[in-house]
Amino acid sequence: MAPNEDTSRNKPSKPRAKKAVPKARQILTVRETAAYLRVHPGTIYRLAKRSSLPAFKVGSDWRFASDILDRWLQEQSASGKGLPRSPRVKRKRRWNHN
Asked: Which of 28, 43, 59, 76 could form a disulfide with 32 if both were Cys (CB 3.0 to 4.6 A apart)?
């Protein structure tokens, strides 16, 4: 091969179109989800247990997909509902002040 001979190895390659890489799904714990939503972890447990918050269990631990939570938040804010509230429980008085 002559030194000045052009070969396919020496040709600049065409720029390749980058493949769209899907956004990595981040899985959050209860504490991370509570920090993300700025609520108490107990609220997260309650909402997950009532199926008010999109979640799944790994063994006995709750997990939350960040992309699904983002969509859920958008739906909640679009509907004007906000976070679901728990029903008020009327508690009995412990002390009788007669």
From this structure: 28
Residue among 21, 37, 24 at smallest CA distance from 69: 37
85: alpha, beta or left? (left if phi > 0; alpha if psi -120 to 50): beta
Ordered alpha helix ranges (H), 4-60: 30-37, 41-49
Task: Tell me phi and psi for residue 66, to 5 degrees.
Answer: -60, -40
Q: Both tokens of residue 81?
A: 């509902």
Domains for the chain: give ranges and CATH numbers.
Answer: 27-79 (1.10.1660)
- Segment 42-91, tens digit of pLDDT: 999 999 999 999 999 999 999 999 999 999 999 888 887 666 666 666 66
SS in 3 state form for 59-84? Answer: CCEEEEEHHHHHHHHHHHHHHCCCCC
